[in-house]
Fold:
Amino acid sequence: RGEFDSTDVDYAVLVSDNAGAFNPQGGRELGGKFLTLKNVSTAVLRGNFELSDADNAKLNIEMGETGYAMGRYVYAERRYRAAMNYYEKGGMTGDPVYMKVLSNYGLLYSTMGRFTQAEKYTMQALGLRISRFGENDPGVAASFNNSAVLHYNLGQYNESEKDFQKAFAVLQFNKLESDLSSAIVLNNRAILYQALGRYDQAEKDMQKAMAIGETLSPTRKSGNRVKFFSNLALLYQQMGKYPEAENIYQKMDSRILDRAKPEYANMLNNLAVLYLLMNKPDSVEHLLQRSAAIFKTTLGENNPAYAKVISDLGNYYRYRGSYTDAQPLLEQALTIREAALGKHHPLYAQSQEDLAILFWKTKQVDKALPLYREVMSNSIDFINRYFPPMSEAEKTKYWDLLAPRFQRFFNFAVETSAGNKAILNELFEYRMATKGLLLHSTRKIREAIMNSGNEQLINDYLTWVDHKEELTRLYAFSKEDLQEQSVNLDSLESVANAMEKKLSENSKDFSSFYFTSITNFKSVRDLLKSNEALIEFIRIRYFDQSFNDSSYYAALVIIPGAPQPKLVLLKEGPALESKYSKTYRVSMKNKINDDQSYTHFWQPLEAELKGKKKIYVSLDGVYNQINLNTLKKGGTDYLINQYDFILLGNPRDLVIQKTANTANNTRMATLLGDPNYGSDKIPQLPATKTEVDSINKVLKLSGYQVNEFMENEATETNLKQSKSLSILHIATHGFFFPDVDKASWPIGVHSEYAKDNVLLRSGLMLSGAKVPDQLSPSLDSSNNGIITSYEAMNLDLKGTKLVVLSACETGLGEVRAGEGVYGLQRAFMVAGANALIMSLWKVDDVATQQLMTGFYYNWVKTGDMQKAFKQAQLQLMVKFKHPYYWGAFVIMED
Structure:
């Protein structure tokens, strides 16, 4: 009875990629135990034994648990109900075992996919255990785990993560970190992390769970090791580690003795999907059919696990073009998921999209479109539902999971637009809703915190910034150096991530914004004047039955009065991003004539822009690396003389601009230039002294209060202390390294960290910068003369009208489709800049000085930033004809 009253059985064990819990018990010996219990039960019913209500209840619980572990769910349900009746009849609802049967009831219904009933009993058991035994009882940990699993199954991922954290806290309090219970909770949290795209965290949890399993006796670990191995295999599968996943599945196949259990069906399901990904389709159909048959027998046709496997089978048929076989399976999966999970669950949305793709590929657009509309609307809801408690890194990983759905919709809209032009409005609207999503989210949270008036929240934010500054100092050291100094960088990064999550969640209480929403096409179009147009560039991965390595660009051209955007396709995506882009950069670097770039990057759009002068442009992909002003058709003038280009981060910025003004009205400017790098290996930039002095005079004459930092004063410290500015101008060397191993300039960060984080591979050099062999990092200071993009994100530039990065290649970085350029550009936008001037290639020192001086003179004279910048470029063209000199810099407004 001591074993019987343990809480182990209360721990639901998740198996990857199936909504449903599987009981932790296992082993063929359960069959004999079941028969023994059944005989005892029969004897009791015949009057051969006299048992109390408590004994009757416990007998029924054990019979129910054994039946549950054997997959006899209807029988288990009857036994649990009988046990509850005995306890309630005897007035024993305060007994720990009564709480146990409630918890078991919740697990049973969760496994059966009856989540409404599961929630009722799971929460009832949790409440009773806390009130009876306090929050630190091991049984409470079991209930928190079960609640977390339930929330996971319901698609309530934020609540699930919180419950797992509570379960761990209880287990740690009871020093159970090496117990099976901790392994189960780690396993379950790993699956949650998989669902959110956090594969690195999931792998760590799975490895810990398996390590605990290795230390336990074979009789206790056998049932769960199969599940743990299966989950790790699927994780490797999702991470693209196909050989590792296949190796685990092959080992499991030889070890699983009972091949009629859900665990084996789950393994077959996942193995089939793996073979499809590995382009080994021969056995896929057979594996999925076997898996479906086992799930149907053990769990029934209404279980989410059965829906998962028939969904995979339907998609397999769709993939190979067997549409008549695919449709009934996909429709059945949708019906099951609607009944078991509801219409707002991620798996229901997935089934809707599966059917939408099927109808798309069978030319039934009238059926595909309404499904896709629901899918896209739900996907926007998922972003707003799951983002609040996430750090930026976690948001990025979740968006990486969700973004392919939007890419598939873009393909669908483009392909079907010939027969339904109105769909281009929806394409444009969903594009606006998701473009720059992560940048917008990070900036909005920061603004919400700083504008909240909540001193504690603001102090927490500043503490987090200080913590990130500490990490910056440590990134200059190798991992070995940090180990010698007893510094655990992983732990410090985890603390920073936890602090950011807390800030993100708390900030929503002080802001009414959604992370994203739909901006109506008409509201943007109606802002355009008769001589204006807007172009939205979209880089689209080509999707047929699946994605391939090719891409193309869709340009949506919006003009006043048009009922929908005009679609212009640039189908040579790979060529644009490779040889044509290279031709453009080489022509700029070598100052040679280039008529071809105009043909490839602009000519297809020209016919749609007749009579238009002012063109708002929202860039994507390779277009972030092209200055449209510098393109020229043979025998004609540069585009700078034909159009007034205004670069936007997102077309909806036009709408937001009409309703909000976040710019700082103070006339404060900080200018940094001509740093003393402290090394003869880094060339000085004497023209930057002339540049800064000239700008200083212009601004002071216009009434600005100017702080000028030159030579030894052009330091990180002075830059980081600059706040409440209207203008920030930095004239120095900039850097961006696509490959850190080939870096020839100082970056102030050890390559072990920089290679995995582009924000550590781009930055600016200030006073005291050193070349790599002269670097002597200190744990006491991050003022090493290098400010990386990672550090620049922490600057307080809220409301700054303009940041000018007067340096080489400050506009370069890692281009991510739909999210812009990860580097200095992103960092200063996150920090609060309303507009940014940056460069696309290595600039000429003297030409840059003249361009910047001319720009400020024009700006204070006219008050129009965009016109002033263009005028300065045209003035420079008089002296320097080639765009290498006047076209390196671009201006972008948020």
Remarks:
- Confidence is low (pLDDT under 50) at residues 1-9, 24-30, 772-776.
- The first strand starts at residue 13 and ends at 14.
- Residues 392-416 form the longest helix (25 residues).
- The two ends are 67 Å apart (CA to CA).
